[in-house]
Amino acid sequence: MNKARAFRPLRVFWLFLVVFFSAPAWAFQTKIVSIPSAAMHRAFDATVVLPADYGRGNGTTRYPVVYVLHGSGGNYADWTSNTQIGKLADRYHVILVMPDGGHESWYIDSPFDQASRYETYIGTEVVSWIDTHFRTIATRQTRAITGLSMGGFGALRIALDRQDTFGAAGSISGAVDPRNSEDEPGIDRVFGNPAHHADFWTRNAIVEDASNFEHAHIALTIDCGVSDFFVQSNRTLHEKLIALGVPHDYAERPGGHTWTYWSNSIRYQVLFFATAFHQNGWHGPAHLA
């Protein structure tokens, strides 16, 4: 009998044990939850990612929360389907929440469509539900919101309108001037006819509302790809914030309006938020000190 062959199963068994016990015992948890809206009389799905250590210990540790909004035509599953965003929950020990904002809601409470109350839903109802059902640190200092494209606009709009709720905000390839998106199918349903309601379009454009960041004390990060069709409006917003003396991070990187760009950008934004949380007194990962 070949001794080497006889002992091979034993060596395989020990190799299995070494690999099993050296691999991480925990990983981030992804949950799909249904969050009701009293404002819109229905419920919407949302993706929640919990860091690996959420389930460890005695279950009393609380975590900061980063809300991440999808773009036009998207839904609550976009970020987890197209990126590895879940790993960021583990890396920075934060809860990530990706709510559903409708296909073309622009995350506003529309005066033209009484059934579209997405700013109230995301900015108030979702936040309250998450704080009730998960172990969050329910303060503005440990709560951030960001998003891509339409979601970038929505994140900044919601943060400006709810400064007591969000202490940090970001925009990735943000449509910070919706007047550049008049041809977007369905946008006039929530913003109204641009010819008849130009004042509403202008009043809600982030580039025209930059001065409200001056006293908001929001940790702010904005980025856009150099080949993105929204890059000029993002530059305009950046220049206005500089002129106003508003502290903010601004970056342009190679890339366009694509998931390749967004999946890279979100890594920088969540790091920015985790650092802001730490500066506000959250005792998270030591390497953020």
TrEMBL record:
This protein's name: S-formylglutathione hydrolase FrmB
Keywords: Hydrolase, Signal
Gene3D superfamilies associated with the record: alpha/beta hydrolase (3.40.50.1820)
SUPFAM superfamilies, per the entry: alpha/beta-Hydrolases
Span of the signal peptide: 1-27
GO terms assigned for molecular function: acyltransferase activity, transferring groups other than amino-acyl groups; hydrolase activity
Any coiled-coil regions, as ranges: none
InterPro entries: AB_hydrolase_fold, Esterase-like, Mycobacterial_A85_antigen
Species: Paraburkholderia tropica
